[in-house]
């Protein structure tokens, strides 16, 4: 499968193996098409997770990661794309409706926007929350103290 995808997409895909499992670093422009191919042609019928990782010192500080599973193949694959702060990625909700809440969580925690998402808004934190807590440069204690003081009128227990 990886050889076929590499032949089709060339330098836009870097296939790798980690802990015996396939993953690919993929050019952001290939994400929608590749996700469709993996679901429709390679039988990856379940989107296990959509997540992100923040590396603030890199030129493109965010990895966006899709973890997919194929029940017929009993196999997992991960796709990863690197993006700059403020760049968006296409929503995978049209492909796997379960990605809805997963993408909302990535938006809520990292501030990464998904183009075409049907209702991209915070899912874990209140609407008035400032910033994105899973970014490594985020000051959680300061934000928690401020939010609790403004919204609850008490001192934070942090």
Key words describing this protein structure:
five-stranded mixed sheet, 4 helices, alpha/beta, 27% strand, 158 residues
Describe the structure.
- Strands 1-2-5-4-3 form a five-stranded mixed sheet. A two-stranded parallel sheet has the order 6-7.
- The protein is α/β, with parallel strands linked by helices and 158 residues long.
- The longest helix has 13 residues.
- It contains four helices and seven strands.
Quantity of strands, as a count: 7
Question: What's the main sheet like?
Answer: 5 strands, mixed
Choose one word for the global shape. elongated
Helicity level, as a percent range?
25-40%
- Indicate the structural class: alpha/beta
Secondary structure layout plus pairing:
Elements: H1 2-9, E1 13-18, E2 21-26, H2 31-40, E3 46-54, E4 62-70, E5 75-83, E6 89-90, H3 99-110, E7 114-115, H4 140-152
Explain briefly what this protein structure is:
The chain is an alpha/beta fold and 158 residues long.
């Amino acid at each position: 499968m990886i050889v076929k995808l590499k032949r089709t997409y060339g330098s836009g895909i870097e296939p790798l193996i980690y802990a015996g499992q396939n993953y690919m670093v993929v050019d952001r422009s290939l994400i929608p098409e590749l996700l469709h191919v993996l679901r429709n042609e390679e039988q990856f019928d379940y989107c296990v997770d959509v997540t992100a990782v923040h590396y603030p010192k890199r030129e493109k500080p965010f990895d966006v990661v899709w973890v997919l599973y194929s029940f017929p193949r009993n196999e997992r694959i991960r796709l990863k794309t690197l993006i700059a702060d403020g760049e968006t990625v296409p929503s995978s909700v049209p492909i796997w409706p379960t990605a809805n809440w997963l993408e909302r969580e990535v938006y809520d925690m990292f501030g990464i926007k998904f183009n075409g998402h049907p209702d991209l808004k915070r899912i874990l934190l209140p609407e008035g929350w400032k910033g994105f807590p899973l970014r490594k440069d985020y000051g959680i204690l300061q934000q928690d103290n401020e939010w609790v003081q403004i919204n609850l009128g008490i001192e934070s227990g942090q």
